[in-house]
């Protein structure tokens, strides 16, 4: 038996699948998972985009408000995972249909691929800073490729180990963040931060800041049910993910806004979304933390991308290893496209346009149309309640299209006083509900046919996000 065959068999035995599980994780464990997940440099660097485009104090307020709004969507979708035991993309079969769910699954793979590219670039830049400070040789693209190659290997062979040490990495990140906050506010006073002149030419408005913060929560919601299906109760999942996500996001983004403000007050060149800009004032330990945190988080991103494809259709025999190798190669090649870093805001808007409507449909479908329960039909490759019309629920597809176009128009053509993500979510929610009233009336609740969760390890891997 070849090494490839032995590795493939091992991965098939241990990889996560889309079957229901009965979670065992406590509130504290779920909270730590979410705290660790979002203490990552992409969230931190997102905060560097806001100042001096908007006032420092207003930026902090918008970070808090946007995070709390986004967290409502995140925990609501995550609770469906807790109650059904299913991961997020498997749950899309409920409203979109067995085949229709391939659309949001495909969008999810595209978004995760984009995240993997961005994070590989940032890890490469941080590693390049360390190497160049010693050797004088700068090769950020080469280091980005090296970093992403390591990530792909870890995603195939060591994602469970990475998941176990993420809380310890989070503790290290929090310690470094505390030092940076102390340095920032003992060097300059809060009044000096508040007095930084606003530069409107940057193009950031309070509404755009709010949308970007909410879009960050939307981007993490694609993994909310994946993590929260391992919670032992809805209370553990809701409170744990809500508190963990909110704390990590507010701390990380606020630190980014503070760090870029520190650079401005120090007379440096404030280049947004550039790790070197904020690493230079605080030294090499910050670069190491950036590199390690990105590598850990990106390993789980790549692993999640692969499992989304492998489990896209119930009963389909898509192999983990060849899928991982193909997607891994694409992620390595894409890590060389450094121009994407200049389009990060556009990338976040794309996430909001694609997935805010998806989650509006999922929430409306599960809690209102399906009356808070899915039946075992959701696990069937054909037929059953979720087959709709040849496997596609066109009401969900139409609602998604309207919502996505609305988010785009309200972002770039007709800006609203409350941004684009909130009205896009609301319009999609109401439209899908109206289009599904007949289905709701035709299918009363069937307690005896509710989908049941099974113990961890019974037909499903227990490694995701643990």
UniProtKB/TrEMBL annotation:
Q: Which Pfam families match?
A: Transp_cyt_pur (PF02133)
Question: What does the UniProt keyword field contain?
Answer: Membrane, Transmembrane, Transmembrane helix, Transport
How does the protein's chain sit in the membrane according to the entry? Answer: Multi-pass membrane protein
The source's domain of life comes to: Bacteria
Localization: Membrane
Region entry Disordered: which residue ranges? 446-466
Which InterPro entries does this entry report, sorted A to Z? CodB (IPR030191), Pur-cyt_permease (IPR001248), Pur-cyt_permease_Fcy2/21/22 (IPR026030)
Chief location category: membrane
Residues annotated as transmembrane: 32-51, 57-81, 102-125, 137-157, 169-189, 201-223, 243-264, 284-306, 318-341, 347-368, 388-410, 416-435
> Could you confirm whether the keyword DNA repair appears in this record?
no
Its family remark reads: Belongs to the purine-cytosine permease (2.A.39) family.
Q: What is this protein called?
A: Purine-cytosine permease family protein
* Source organism of the structure: Agromyces aurantiacus
């Amino acid at each position: 038996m070849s090494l490839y065959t032995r590795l493939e068999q091992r991965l098939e035995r241990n990889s996560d699948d889309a079957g229901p599980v009965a979670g065992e994780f406590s509130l504290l464990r779920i909270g730590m998972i979410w705290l660790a997940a979002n203490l990552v440099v992409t969230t931190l660097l997102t905060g560097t985009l806001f100042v001096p485009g908007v006032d420092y104090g207003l930026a902090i307020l918008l970070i808090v408000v946007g995070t709390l709004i986004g967290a409502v969507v995140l925990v609501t979708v995550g609770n469906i995972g807790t109650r059904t035991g299913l991961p997020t993309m498997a749950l899309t079969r409920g409203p979109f249909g067995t085949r229709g769910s391939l659309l949001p699954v495909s969008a999810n793979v595209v978004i995760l691929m984009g995240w993997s590219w961005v994070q590989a670039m940032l890890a490469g830049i941080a590693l390049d800073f360390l190497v160049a400070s010693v050797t004088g040789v700068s090769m950020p693209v080469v280091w980005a490729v090296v970093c992403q190659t390591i990530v792909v290997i870890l995603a195939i062979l060591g994602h469970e180990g990475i998941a176990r040490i993420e809380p310890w990495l989070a503790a290290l990140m929090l310690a470094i963040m505390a030092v940076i906050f102390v340095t920032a506010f003992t060097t300059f006073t809060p009044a000096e931060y508040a007095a930084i002149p606003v530069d409107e030419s940057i193009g950031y408005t309070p509404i755009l800041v709010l949308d970007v913060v909410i879009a960050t929560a939307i981007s993490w919601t694609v993994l909310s049910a994946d993590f929260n299906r391992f919670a032992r109760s809805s209370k553990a999942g809701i409170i744990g993910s809500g508190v963990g996500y909110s704390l990590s996001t507010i701390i990380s983004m606020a630190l980014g806004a503070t760090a870029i403000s520190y650079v401005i007050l120090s007379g440096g060149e404030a280049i947004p979304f550039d790790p070197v800009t904020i690493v230079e004032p605080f030294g090499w330990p910050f670069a190491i933390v950036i590199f390690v945190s990105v590598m850990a988080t990106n390993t789980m991103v790549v692993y999640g991308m692969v499992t989304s494809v492998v489990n896209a259709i119930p009963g389909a025999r898509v192999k983990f290893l060849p899928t991982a190798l193909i997607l891994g190669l694409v992620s390595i090649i894409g890590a060389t496209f450094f121009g994407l870093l200049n389009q990060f805001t556009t990338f976040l808007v794309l996430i909001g346009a694609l997935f805010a409507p998806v989650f509006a449909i999922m929430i409306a479908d599960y809690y209102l149309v399906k009356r808070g329960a899915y039946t075992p039909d959701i696990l069937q490759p054909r037929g059953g309640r979720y087959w709709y019309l040849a496997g596609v629920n066109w009401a969900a597809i139409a609602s998604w299209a309207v919502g996505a176009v609305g988010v785009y128009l309200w972002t770039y053509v007709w800006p609203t006083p409350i941004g684009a993500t909130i009205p896009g979510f609301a319009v999609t929610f109401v439209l899908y509900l109206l289009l599904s009233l007949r289905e709701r009336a035709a299918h009363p609740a069937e307690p005896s046919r509710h989908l049941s969760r099974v113990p961890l390890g019974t037909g499903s891997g227990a490694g995701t996000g643990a």
